[in-house]
Structures are given as C-alpha cells and as structure tokens.
C-alpha cells in the first residue's frame, strides 16, 4: 500500500522578519542620534550672504559647535550663529535709520511693525565685538572697546559709519559682520541676547580647497 505523506506547511522566514526589524531599529536609532547631535552638539550651516566677507564666502559650509557655550560664555572674536532679535527686521524693510547712534539702540522692546517678519526665521552669523558691560564706539573708521582701538585683521574694509558710544547690556553681545559696510548687524538693531545664540562656527568643510578652522582670533585690548 502506498502511503500518502502529509505536506508540512513552510515555516515563516524568521530570518527575513528579523532582518527587517533590525533595519527599522537601525534607521530609528540613527534618526534619534542625528536629531540629538544636531540639537545639542553640532550642526552644519551654509553662508547665504556676503556680510562676513572676506572671512566667510557665499555658499561656504560650516560646522557650528553648539555645546561649548553650555559651559563657557562667548568671547570677543568668536564667530557666532544666532537667531536675530525682532528689531533686525528693519534691515529688510524700507526703514533706514540715518543715525545708528540713536537712543533706541538699547531698547529691547520689539517694534510692532517688525514682528513676525519671515526673514527673521533664519539664523544670522556675525563676529562678537562687544561683551556684556563693554563700551563700544565706531569713529574715524575704527572700532573702540572701552576707549581702546580694536585691532582687526579680518574686515573687508574699515567701517564708513559713526556709531555709539553705547554700553552693551548684561547677558547681551554686540556683533558686527566682517564686511562692515554691508552687514545687517548690531550697529543697526542693537545687542544679541545671550539666549539667542545657537553656537560658535568652528570649521569650514566646504569648499574643499578652503577646508579647515576659521580665522584665528586676533589680539584684542586687554589680552
């Protein structure tokens, strides 16, 4: 008598299921790590304008260190990335203050005509010039900090405007673009609050022929 063998159904491919599960876990972990690194440690930024010429060129790609300022305060000469205060919107309107040395510079209250400007959703990048408590003045094509001339080897051209003297408020910084005469910076709209600062630009990784650390800090008065 011929026996009829029962067909055993194929077992599910457990290895295939495990591979998919591991792939999902890997992708998820990578996304979490990438988000964490970008949020708390470092992130890449590109330069959209010429306000930091000649130090930073348009379309340069930078690494921004976001962890150092959790332990130390910004220093004079640092190139910082920050969210601009509301008054910075004046640079993108028809408003042009003929006298940057006006009494409204230190007024932190936002101008209602500049609030919610979409231009302010993008971070700015400038160089720290004035620290909390500093007296800053621009005259005779020179920047003065606490009455002392500031040596600057990195600017595109001497500033052609007069500014100050002003005192930098506590927990705030005065920032200027290296392209002094073509920069929307503190001489227009005032100080940057410490809490607005995202991090310090430390490395240029693109283009490859200019890859490396950014311009070293020059010697400043009192250092």
Q: How many helix segments? A: 2
Helix content: 10-25%
Order of helices and strands: HEEEEEEEEEHEEE
Q: How many E-type strands?
A: 12
Low-confidence stretches: 28-40, 94-104, 108-115, 218-223
Quick synopsis:
This protein is an alpha+beta fold.
Give a structural overview.
The chain is α+β, with helices and mostly antiparallel strands. It has helices at 14-41, 186-189; strands at residues 42-46, 61-65, 79-82, 124-130, 135-139, 142-145, 148-149, 163-167, 172-176, 192-193, 197-206, 212-213. A hairpin with a 2-residue loop joins strand 6 and strand 7. The longest helix has 28 residues, at 14-41. The N and C termini lie far apart (104 Å).
Structural descriptors:
alpha+beta, globular, 2 helices, 25% strand, 12 strands, eight-stranded antiparallel beta sheet, disordered C terminus, 223 residues, four-stranded antiparallel beta sheet, single chain
